[in-house]
Amino acid sequence: MKKKNVWSIMIPLIIVAVFTQCHNDDDDGTSTTYSSTSCDSETGVARVVCLAEAFKATLSSSQVATLQLDYTFSNAKTWSNLPAAMSARNGIKLGSLNSTQLTAAKALIEEMTGTTANEGWDEVQQVWLADDYLYANGGGSDYGSGNYYLAFLGTPSTSGTFEILETGHHKTVANTYVDGVLVGATPHFEAVEPVSFTSGSTTYAPISQERDAFVALLASFSSSELSSAKSSSTFTDLVLVPGKEWQFPSTSSGLQCNGLTSEQKELVLNVIKTYTNDIDDNDAAAFLETYTSELDNTYILYSGTTSMNTKNDYFRIDGPHVWIEFVVAGGVVFPSGIHFHSIWRDRSTDYAGTKS
Q1: CB 90 within 8 Å of CB 77
Q2: Coil, strand, or helix at residue 312?
Q3: φ/ψ of residue 92, rounded to 5
Q4: Which InterPro entries match (predicted)?
Q5: pLDDT tens across 18-32, in order?
Q6: DSSP letters of 179-208?
Q7: Which of 27, 57, 221, 257: CA 20 to 30 A from 19?
C-alpha cells in the first residue's frame, strides 16, 4: 500500500524564520525576554545549530536543563523500541511543550531529516501518527506522538561535538556532529504498528517503501542466489536491538553483492536509499557514496518468505560500514496482526564512533 504525504492532515509545520520577542515565565518566577532569531541565511550544520538555539530560546531555564545534557555514551545509548513510559528517555517530552515550543522543535527535527517523499521528515510524522492511532485504538496513554522526546547531548555548535536525539516508541533519530560535520547518523530506528492505518480520510503505511524495496531485490535473484542469501535461522526481532551496541557479527553471512548484475546492484542501492534518505539530503548523499563504493563487499541475507509480510520474515544488508535490518514481528496492541521493526546502523560511525 502506497504511503501518502502527511502534510494535508497534520498541523502544518512552518519553519520559523523569525521568532518574535516573547516572554517565558521561568520556574523561579523570573521572566526572560528572547531576541528575534532568523535562520534563513544559514545552511548545513550552521542552520541546525541556529534552529536548535531558536528552540532553546522558547524554553524556560528548567526546560533547557531537561533538554540539554552532557555528551556521553551513556546518554547517547538511552533509546529503545519500547514506549517511553516503559523505557525512560532523556530530554524534553514533546507533549509537555506549548504550541510555540512544539513548532520550534519540529522545525529543528525537519531540518535534520530528509525531503524525499515518505522518507525523512514525512516518515517521522507518519510514525507519530501511527502512535496516535495506537493511543486512540486500544494502546492507551503509553502511546501517542506526545510521548516522544528531544534531547541535546552537548551544546549545539559548529565546533566541538554534540548530538541531537529524537526518540520515542517507534522512531529514533540520532545525529552526532563534530566540528560542523554530521559524523554519525545512527543508530536510526524505525518501526510501525499497524503496518497500515487510516487517519482522517487518508491511509498511511510507514516503512512500506523499505519493505517494497527488499521484495523487489529478492525477486531479482535466481534460485541459486536466493539459496545463498537465505538463512536457516528464525528471527523474531532485530539482531542489533537497543542495548546491543557495537555487537556487530565478526563475519558477514549471505549472498555477496560482487556477483550481482548492475541492475541488481541498483536494487541494493534502492534499499539503502530508503534509510539514508531519512537524514538531510546532503548528508544522505555522502553516506550513500560510501556505501556505494563498498557494494561489492556487501552481503544480503534473508529468512522466512520473500514477501517480507509474514511474521518472522527477516532481511539484512551488511557491508564494511552499512548495517540494515528489517523484521516482521507479531502485533502488540493488535496481537492478531504484525508490525515492522527496522534499524540502520554503521559499523564505524554508530554514535560517531563513541564506544564508552
Answers
A1: no
A2: coil
A3: -105, 135
A4: DUF3500
A5: 333 333 344 443 333
A6: TTEEEE---EEEEESSSSEEETTEEE-TTH
A7: 27
CA 26 to CA 62: how far, in whole Å? Answer: 7
C-alpha span between 334 and 331 (Å, rounded): 5
Please say whether the beta carbons of 318 and 298 come within 8 A.
yes
Q: Where are the alpha helices (DSSP H) in 230-333?
A: 262-276, 281-293
Higher pLDDT, 34 or 41: 41
| Single-letter amino acid, residue 229 | A
Predicted confidence band of residue 37 (pLDDT cuts 50, 70, 90): low
The C-alpha atoms of residue 51 and residue 323 are separated, in whole angstroms, by 30
- How many Å apart are CA 108 and CA 16, to the nearest integer? 10
C-alpha cell at 35: 531576541
Task: Quote the CA–CA distance of 236 and 314 in Å, as a whole number.
Answer: 8
Residue spans of the domains in the chain: they are: 6-203, 208-353
